[in-house]
Amino acid sequence: QVQLVESGGGLVQAGGSLRLSCAASGRAFSTYVMGWFRQAPGKERELVAALTWSGGTTYYADSVKGRFTISRDNAKNTRYLQMNSLKPEDTAVYYCAADPNFTTRATMWRYWGQGTQVTVSS
C-alpha cells in the first residue's frame, strides 16, 4: 500500500553535509508517521528521526539532535533527511520507513525503503 524509494547517499568527509530523499507512494502516505533509521555493521537498526503526517511532532535521537533535520513535502510525496556536521560514527545504511503509529522499535514499522549507504571519512 505504501512504497518507498531512497536516494542521496554517498561518501563525505567529517564535518560535511548530505541530504537524503525518500519518494513515497500510496493512499496512506499523507497520514502515516514517517521515519528515518540507520544500521551500521554489527549494530542494531536505530531510529534517528521521525515526523508525524501533520508535521506537528518531531523526534530525534540524542546522537543526531541539532545536526539532522527531518522534513516532508506532501505535494511531492517526498521526505528528506538533512544531515549536517557529519561524523564517522554516522556511517551506516540509512532507511526511510512509514507506519500508522509511532514507535522507536524498528521491528514495529510496516513499510521500508531499500536503504542507501552513507559513509563519513575521518
Structural description of this entry:
The structure is a single chain. The strands form 2 sheets. Strands 2, 4, 5, 6, 9, 10 and 11 form a 7-stranded mixed β-sheet that branches. A 4-stranded antiparallel β-sheet has the order 1-3-8-7, with no helix packed on it. Strand 7 (68-73) and strand 8 (78-83) form a beta hairpin. It has no helices and 11 strands. By secondary structure, the chain is an all-beta fold. Helix content is 0%, strand content 50%. The radius of gyration is 13 Å and the shape is globular.
Q: What's the quick description here?
A:
This protein has 122 residues and is mainly β. It contains no helices and eleven strands.
Please work out how many helical segments DSSP would assign. 0
- Global mean pLDDT: 92
Query: How big is the Rg?
Result: 13 Å
Q: Which descriptor suits the 3D outline?
A: globular
- Structural class determined from secondary elements: mainly beta
Q: Whole-Å distance between the termini?
A: 40 Å
User: Biggest β-sheet, characterized?
Assistant: 7 strands, mixed
Proportion of residues in extended strands: over 45%
Give the SSE string.
EEEEEEEEEEE
- Unreliable residue stretches: none
Helical amount: under 10%
Q: How many strands appear in the DSSP assignment?
A: 11
Oligomer: single chain
Task: Indicate the topology.
Elements: E1 3-7, E2 10-13, E3 18-25, E4 33-39, E5 46-51, E6 58-60, E7 68-73, E8 78-83, E9 92-99, E10 111-112, E11 116-121
Parallel strand pairs: 2-11
Antiparallel strand pairs: 1-3, 3-8, 4-5, 4-9, 5-6, 7-8, 9-10, 9-11
Name some characteristics of this structure:
single chain, 122 residues, mainly beta, seven-stranded mixed beta sheet, four-stranded antiparallel beta sheet, 0% helix
